[in-house]
Amino acid sequence: MLCIGLDPDPGRFPLKISREKEPIFTFNKAVIDATVDLACCYKPQIAHYAASAAERELEKTITYIKDLGVPVILDAKRGDVGSTAEKYATEAFERYGADAVTINPYLGHDAMEPFLAFADKGVFIVCRTSNPGGADIQNLVMQDGDQLFERVANLAAHQWNGNRNVALVVGATRPKELARIREITGEMTFLLPGIGTQGGDVAASIKAGQGGGLIVTSSRAVIYASSGDDFADAARQLAQSTRDEINQHRQ
Amino acid sequence: MLCIGLDPDPGRFPLKISREKEPIFTFNKAVIDATVDLACCYKPQIAHYAASAAERELEKTITYIKDLGVPVILDAKRGDVGSTAEKYATEAFERYGADAVTINPYLGHDAMEPFLAFADKGVFIVCRTSNPGGADIQNLVMQDGDQLFERVANLAAHQWNGNRNVALVVGATRPKELARIREITGEMTFLLPGIGTQGGDVAASIKAGQGGGLIVTSSRAVIYASSGDDFADAARQLAQSTRDEINQHRQ
User: Fold this and answer.
1) Chain B contacts of A53, Cβ < 8 Å?
2) How many domains does one find in chain A?
3) What CATH code is carried by the domain that includes residue B138?
4) In a domain, A181, yes or no
5) pLDDT at residue number B251
6) What amino acid positions of B are annotated as catalytic residues?
7) Is A47 in Cβ contact with B84 (below 8 Å)?
8) B226 and B12 Cβ atoms separated by less than 8 Å
9) The complex's ipTM?
10) How far is B244 from chain A (nearest CA, A)?
11) Which is the most buried residue in A143, A172, B32, B159, by most CB within 10 A?
12) Which pTM was predicted?
């Protein structure tokens, strides 16, 4: 159930990696090689590549992971009107060949349809995020007493899931809300970011999320477990202890 | 007040352009050269470049526009947790050198802060979009009777605008809601997409939005005014008639 987030930040690479011709791909490849037997999937976060003009290294990273037979979730949180959403879906699924993508629900159903139309791909709709500011909008209370994230969970499970390819992003920092979203959606799969650096609790999240698929994501805690030349070994150790912790709490 | 949206779609280019080495940049350059005296700014929509792996052509397009002394709004509608939002802000403002960017409010204040911290850049927060599905989330009614887009407008104007660099995206297809957002925000600048292909009404939008800055965006209607080799001349004619229509309704 462990997903490893690949959020490469060249400023944090060991000097040996920084000197490589393709530092981001070299770093990612070392992390992937060291953890591939421990991860159910990988989640590259696209901003970390775009900020460095490293689209080619993102393409190579995704191809490398897929050639190992492991699925890739492209974390992009895209959201725009229909004709533009089609281009974003092309970016995620055709250009990069991702198996799934994260998207933002604020623009409504027609902004999501071009992604959902790829029936063999997964679409992770952002529902309740792990950051403190998530409450600003997602916890607003509606006229009927529901909070906004509950409404999004409801729409996702009961209106937008015609192709049975919808999943949700639910921060691991909010176990009570996670349990509520599970109640609303039934056995839908959730991606749980926020373990590790952001302080999410593995045990509480797995308990709260039981009853459907869970993918627990750790990104910076794993890939920057060491800032030295032993970063790949350290990433493996952290991934292993996180996976073991997850398995210990599975029912 | 006319902003021209650069949403290049290689499938719609004249054959002569398709055969160029950099068809997207060549197409954009022809449109820009033909309209630069008519536009207050240009708005490239990033998905149209990403879908074609044309980041280099986007860079060249933005540099070309800025060298003409005209500002660029990068339409990206990004939104993610703080550490990732920093990377997206780097992408928009440092890599591409955009003067402003569009962002999505669903993740709350800490997802917007890295953009807002660039005090000399403009940050257009998506408030009420021009697409039919926009109502799914943006028109939800809160406990206090406000609709969600009204709450976003309120937060944008009264909590998130410490650097005085916030503006809003408000679809030109919703004049009544536009008038309400003007009431809430005072003299804030609005970007109004939805004129042209999406059916937005110039006269009604300008009337509803009066009392603050307005930037009226037309994208596909202008750049695909003709599918033939005369596309640049046709774009100029359409841009001119749209600008004249805007000016006719200004007070």
Assistant:
1) 55, 95
2) 1
3) 3.20.20.70
4) yes
5) 67
6) 77
7) yes
8) no
9) 0.97
10) 27
11) A172
12) 0.97
